[in-house]
Predict the 3D structure of the following.
Amino acid sequence: MTHAATIAPALTIAPAPTLAPAQITDHSLLDDIQGLSLGVFLSGLGIHFLTLAGLITGQTAGLAVIISYISGYSFGVVFFAINLPFYFVAYKRLGVEFTVKSVLSVSVLSIVTTLLPHGFVIESLNPALGAVIFGSLVGLGLLAMFRHNGSLGGLGVIALLVQDATGFKAGWVQLITDAVIFSVALFLFPASVVAYSLLGAVTLNLIITFNHRRDRYIAT
């Protein structure tokens, strides 16, 4: 007597659930206002520490600080004037939104750096500490502005263009231009001032180098 073979029903394995890709959303106007405002304030505060310590820096801000020391004009006025040629480049290569945000940021920074000395006075500041505080605050401020498609104009615009075109990080571009500016500064300032100032510039650019990655951002 034969028995019919009993075949167990095949198990149906449900496919693993897939995660939906993150939805990319733009920053709202309020997001941009608070982000750029924070960036400008941090940068202005950092520059205030820099000048209190009697130091200089690189980039367009460094040129403005040097000219301000030599000419006697306020940093805010000189910084705004130096940035004017870069706005044209930003408009042509990075668009209207980036240019408008950068112009507004530079304008507000000029006001902030003019007003801060009247309300925030420090009697004594170690230059090494002042350099690190400057680099940290301005580095964080620039990151906030980059995150909201803005900048402080000047050579930072060129650094962003180089990064977007070649992948060479903006922080390294800025560090190279800083080296040129500090080489010139050696002929104008004591070596100790340049050395402490270089510490601040390295701190600033390393913060940008290790934290600014456009491909890691979701919102823009």
